[in-house]
Amino acid sequence: MLKLTIYFIIPFYIILTNMNDVQAQTILTEALNAPRPGDSLVTRRLPGMPLLPAGRDVVWDISQYSPRENRSLLFTGSDSSSVATENGTSWHTAVHGDTLWLKGFENRLCLMEYDRLLPLLRYPFSSGDSIKGQFHGMGTWCGRRFMRVWGDGITRAEGEGTLILPGGDTLRHVLMTRSVRHTYHITYDSIHTWDALRQAVARDSGGGLPDTAGIAPVVTETRSWYAPGWRYPVLRADQSSDPLGSATLAVLFPPESQLELDYDMENALVRQSLTMHRSSSFPEGGQKDSSISMDSHTTGYDAFTGTVTVTFSLLRPASVSLLLSDVTGVVWRSTEQSYDVDGTYTLSLSCLGLPHGQYALRIMSGSDLYSETFSIK
Fold this sequence. Notes:
The protein is mainly beta. The chain has four helices and 23 strands. It starts with a strand and ends with a strand.
C-alpha cells in the first residue's frame, strides 16, 4: 500500500486570509492563460454594452445584456506561436521568454507583418502590473498597395472585483486588464514591390519610427476580464476611435464553452480548488461534511497493464475524480465517475505511454482531496 497524504492545495492563485475575511488575487500565467493552438471557443456579442469602469472591489453587472449570435474563435499554430481567427481577422502571437507578443494580422483586405513586435502581456501578470512597448510593421492593402504601420501600446491590470454574467452566474476574484494602442499608417502609391517598400522605410526613418506630426492615430482600447480557472477572458470589450468617430464591441466568452477545451486540466484543478475552498469555509462551530472515506482504501500500480487503481468507500452519492500529474504539476491524465449510492468502489486510470518518473495521484470528491505518490519505471 502506498503512503497516503491528506492536504489542501490552492494552486496558481493567492489566498490572503485576514481575520474572517478571505480574499483572492488572480494572477495570469503562461501555463493557465497563454493561447493554445487547437483551442476553439464559442463567442457571443453583447449589443449595447459600454466600456465598464476599472477599480478595486468593483461589481461588473452585465446581466441586463442579452447575448446575440454564436460566433467562433479558433486558435491554430505551433507550441510557441498561435493564430487567433475571429470575425475574419487572424491575429498572430507568440510567447518569447515571459512575454506574449503580437506579430501581425491579416484579413481579406490587409496583410501586416511586424518587424518590431508589440508586447501584449507579461507572465505572471496581476493587479497593478503593466507592460508597454512600440511596434512597427509593413504589409499590403487589398493586395495591391503597400503600407507601413507603427505606434505604441500599453497594458495594465486595472480592475478587480465580481462579474455577474447574463443569466445571473457570478464570478469572483475577476481581474480586468486594459490595453490602449495608438496606430499610425502610411500608404505608398508609387511602391509596388517588397524590396522597394523596405528601401523606402529605411530611407524615411533611418531604422527608427516615423514622425507622427500631422498623422491622426487610430486609438484602440481593449478591456478583458479574467476569472480564476478559465484560460481565456470571459468578457472582452473593444473600442476603436479615429477622427471620423468611434465604435464599441463587447464579446462574451461563455464559461461553458471553455469547459469543453481539451486537456486543460491545469484550469480544471484551479476550479476544483476554488470549489474546495468555498466548501471548506464553515460558520463557527460547523463541521466538514465528507463524502468519501479513505481509511481502509487500497491503491496499486500495475506495471504490466500500466494502470493505477484506487479502491475507496463512499458515505453518500457523490462524484469522484482522479488527476495524475508529474512532480512539476503538469496534469497528464484524469477521469471522473459519478455514483448514485454509497458503497465501496474501484476507479482506474491508464498510465500507458507516460515517461518514467515520479507521479502524484490526486483523489477528489467535493471538498475532499487526497494525494498519493508512486513511480513509473
